Amino acid sequence: MRKIVDLATKVEALEDGGRHSLNVHLGIYREEIDLEDAVVEVGLKTAFVSVETEGMDLDPASKYADIVVPAKAAVEYNVTETLSMSVEDAMAAKAAIKGNLSPLKASLDASMNGEVSGKQTSSFLLAQTHAETRGFQAVEAIGDDRWKIAAEKGVLHGKFLNGPLCEAALASGRPNRVGVTVSVNVRKRDVEVKLTADRRRLKFQSMNRERMIALLLARSLTNASPSGSESILLAISESVHEE
Questions:
Q1: Residue with the larger pLDDT of the pair 206 and 215
Q2: Cα Dmax for the chain
Q3: Do 155 and 5 form a contact (C-beta atoms < 8 A)?
């Protein structure tokens, strides 16, 4: 599975006494895997990164990709525009309709059909729209010291972490050994398998073929997962720092 998940972890002491940076490198890729009788393309739609520490406590405020609600990556406004026009008499108003204010003709016609005398001031609403958009975020810090890595479309393919994931402070008692264990898991339903070559003599119905291979592949990945678990352990990395 090294072709699909590339994981490395390193704990570095910071100048601030007792604090450490947990640096994680994580790449998740779409890859072809050669089984004995078939070649399948395997991809992950969503994966989860979990962190466990030894002798340290994670600082929640330092977590990378921590989303604060309401989260707005971008806000687009089309501000309401109001036009106020003062006309001295009907002739001036009609001239305005024929001139630069012709886009407002339909609105002005309603008032011009009657008699207009003296000074008249009218306001006309041109537009009023408001749109909020939030850009897609591939990495999100979630509860229980975990991070969710998700693909916007298709499957994950690329480098998603390459630096500080969070910071941690020494636990009480100032232990002389600190460490971190980072693991990457995926839910079975988030494993996408496509058959690219079939060398088996016994063929199965196309409807069941990918489902069968996906099941066999999932089983081969569950050596470190509890029996019947929906989560598959893909990779694990440890880093220990001696004080």
A1: 215
A2: 95
A3: no
